Amino acid sequence: MDSVLPIIIIGTGLAGYSLVREFRKLNREVPVLMLTRDDGHSYSKPMLSTGFTKGKSAEAISLGDPGKMAEQLNVSIRNFTEVTRIDPDSKTLYIGSEALAYERLVLANGASVNALNFKGSNHPNILSINDLMDYRGFRNKLMEKQRVLIMGAGLIGCEYANDLLHGDFQITVVDPAETALNGLIPDFAGQAVIQGLERAGIQFMMQSFVKEVIAHEAHLVAVLNDGQQVEADLIISAVGLRPELTLAKSAGLECQRGVVTNRFLETSHANIYALGDCAEIDGHVLLYVLPLMASARALAKTLHGERTQVSFSAMPVVTKTPACPVVVCPPIEQNGKWQVERDDINITATYVDRSGEILGFVLTGECISAKQSLVKAVKGIHI
Prior knowledge:
Strand content: 25-35%
Number of strands: 25
């Protein structure tokens, strides 16, 4: 009997492992090979920005090494393995000169951090945290440090700032925007986040960015665009992510902001799919957990033979910033207006259309308790 070609999944992050878990609920027999350039541990990425508060080492955050995951999911896993080329026409991928044939291929290789390029930006005490290996290095470098500068007041930057409040750190956050979580929440809510975190002891320097880092023997000096200087022992770069597109582009797959797919997670080439942070699904790049899980469930059915579209209802984003927690369901349609109720940093704001239908919402502080009722009230399908 001819051997069955495997489904190959590139990536062992939350997208890859979630897909395999869902697929194995439906099919235990079809061979699956997972390839990853990192260590292949299974972990929950949202845990990284709360790990310090919880006293979690990288080992404690790991849910299983590749050996454990391979046995648990009945798959083969090759870690520290770099896929160098995909040939869609022959349904073959290459690891250097090694060729691997596949039946179907799934791109679940996530997103890369945006890299800033300024004088001194390559110093080893300037780091980004995008996976478990990064987190391990971060925790090692954090030892005996006191002053931490965070570049970026987005979701990840604010979460790490809040997390480090539970240590004896002096924390400064810089960002070129006027308010925190710019692009995710409206300015009035972003200002509430800054107020809450400042009261907890974090310094914000908004409309500022690092132009240069000068290394001294024991510390770094960040020179900002306005000439101000910030001394730091460690600098965290949290300036956003971009979908990983290198392999897809070289294979000739259609890419825009992400690897372009339809709602079946099908790319522009037959038998190749994409999900998670690398994918642009029907025009949307959704770098959050809930759409990833919905995508994994739908694609698992498709791979099992039941071609299934992914659909998204209202899926709120919840920040891990206890000093001023935020729940946001960003409105996709921009033809309405915000209705805002505010008491200090506690905000309930709904985005309504002309008929009064709720298209989205943002809650901050003590008002996040209204999350469930507002999720139910959001009009129709979110995207």
